[in-house]
TrEMBL record:
Domain of life per record: Bacteria
SMART domains in the record: Iso_dh
Entry-linked PANTHER family: 3-ISOPROPYLMALATE DEHYDROGENASE
Isopropylmalate dehydrogenase-like domain residues: 5-360
GO CC terms in record: cytosol
Class of the enzyme per the UniProt entry, highest EC level: oxidoreductase
InterPro entries per UniProt: IsoCit/isopropylmalate_DH_CS, IsoPropMal-DH-like_dom, Isopropylmalate_DH
Entry's EC annotation: 1.1.1.85
Binding site for NAD(+): 77-90, 288-300
Subunit structure, interactors included: Homodimer.
Protein name, per record: 3-isopropylmalate dehydrogenase
Family: Belongs to the isocitrate and isopropylmalate dehydrogenases family. LeuB type 1 subfamily.
Co-factor(s): Mg(2+); Mn(2+)
Length: 368
């Protein structure tokens, strides 16, 4: 059988720095676990614009459609701020998401014990937290028509339209139920069915998909504003939360920050299953290209490493190996190793990007 394939798009700023640490781990799997990935690398974002005049070359797009998983670092930088909108670095990432039709965005909020003091919430509220928000990513109010700023009488009116079809809701609901089955079998769906028709339909369709296809999963519904409150009050009551594009945008950012640094947050964007049964998938850290620290060895590579762990779990059915990587991260943090963004109340041993990556590899070595 062919090796699983990965396209690495390290991108700009700290992207290549954090991706270098992931490459060490990919190499470790080949030499120590006999799991070899076929890795190709290409350009995205500002570096692609510099070479090709476009933030994503058509050949790169075609490669992304063929591999089992895309791993992306970050795109953007101040030197590209004045480019025309159509060739800005972010357009490369948006094109990938759109053409791969990545409708299901998984944003875990996981609190490693060693970092529980980093949260703005009390330690007992966040310690051991492990939830995932599934955000619908390709429809809803960010895409619905009509949209625009129009003139009505003698004033302007800004219009966006919240629009969801049944099939758009159904497919992201399935994605959340599938995920819950691999975890603690619990889904909470959030909308505003009390004031929005799209919310009423959302609730109906999620319930129907549940009853027909996933009756074994525990399903609850919550209004999104109450959900936001509950996330801050007692987030550990949740396992998987599924919600639309707009609410998911807000709730996933809020949930992510429960756990501390931006340098710790991975994400996955999944689409429909390919011929081999694996979903189309792009994995990336939540953070950007951090131009303020790029090239200084200060970036925390853990978000990117944990994104690779998500790829192991969701694209390659290697859940045990994903857990091994996560445990290795837990170990280095428990041992007090800290990149600059993690230096907090407990002090710790300052390490560079590459020292952090080496420590994770050493912890992986110790795990076998
Ligand atoms: P950012 O995430 O790049 O940085 C915000 C702050 O967090 C900075 O102080 C940065 O130093 C710090 N930070 C981020 N990641 C870190 C890490 N791994 N380790 C340690 N510290 C880290 O967001 P920004 O400053 O708003 O944007 C910078 C550039 O990145 C912009 O061009 C923006 O458009 C782009 N961006 C890209 C993505 C993406 O590629 N998905 C996401 C957000 C922003």
């Amino acid at each position: 059988m062919a090796n699983p394939s990965i396209l690495i798009l390290a991108g700009d700023g700290i992207g290549p720095e954090v991706m270098a640490e992931v490459k060490k781990i990919i190499g470790w799997f080949g030499t120590r676990r006999g799991i070899t990935f076929d890795v190709t690398e290409d350009l995205v974002g500002g570096c692609a614009y510099d070479k090709h005049g476009t933030p994503l070359h058509d050949d790169t797009m075609a490669k992304a459609q063929e591999v089992d998983a895309v791993l992306l670092g970050a795109v953007g930088g101040p030197q590209y701020d004045n480019l025309d909108f159509s060739v800005k670095p972010e357009r490369g990432l948006l094109r990938l998401r759109k053409e791969m039709d990545l409708y299901s965005n998984l944003r875990p909020a996981q609190c490693f014990d060693a970092l529980a003091d980093f949260s703005s919430l009390k330690k007992e509220v966040v310690a051991g937290l492990d939830i995932v928000i599934v955000r619908e990513l390709t429809s809803g109010v960010y895409f619905g028509e009509p949209r625009g700023i129009f003139t009505e009488g003698n004033e302007r009116v800004g219009i966006n339209t919240q629009r969801y079809t049944e099939s758009e809701i159904a497919r992201v609901a399935r994605s959340a139920f599938e995920l819950a089955r691999r975890r603690n079998n619990k889904v909470c769906s959030m909308e505003k069915a009390n004031v929005m028709e799209s919310g009423i339909l959302w609730r109906q369709v999620v319930q129907e998909i549940h009853d027909k296809e996933y009756p074994d999963v525990q399903l609850s519904h919550m209004y999104a504003d109450a959900g936001a409150m509950q996330l801050c009050r007692w987030p550990k009551q949740f396992d998987v939360i599924v919600t639309d594009n707009l609410f998911g945008d807000l709730l996933s950012d809020a949930a992510a920050m429960l756990t501390g640094s931006l340098g710790m947050l991975p994400s996955a964007s999944l689409g429909a299953p390919m011929a081999n049964g694996r979903p189309k998938a792009l994995y990336e850290p939540v953070h950007g290209s951090a131009p303020d620290i790029a090239g200084q060895g200060k970036a925390n590579p853990i978000a990117c490493i944990l994104s690779f762990a998500m790829a192991l779990r969701y694209s390659f059915d290697l859940g045990d190996e994903a857990a091994r990587v996560e445990a290795a991260v837990e170990t280095v943090l428990a041992n007090g190793l800290r990149t600059a963004d993690l230096m907090g109340p407990d002090g710790g041993t300052p390490v560079s990007t590459s020292q952090m990556g080496d420590a994770v590899v050493a912890a992986l070595d110790a795990s076998i």
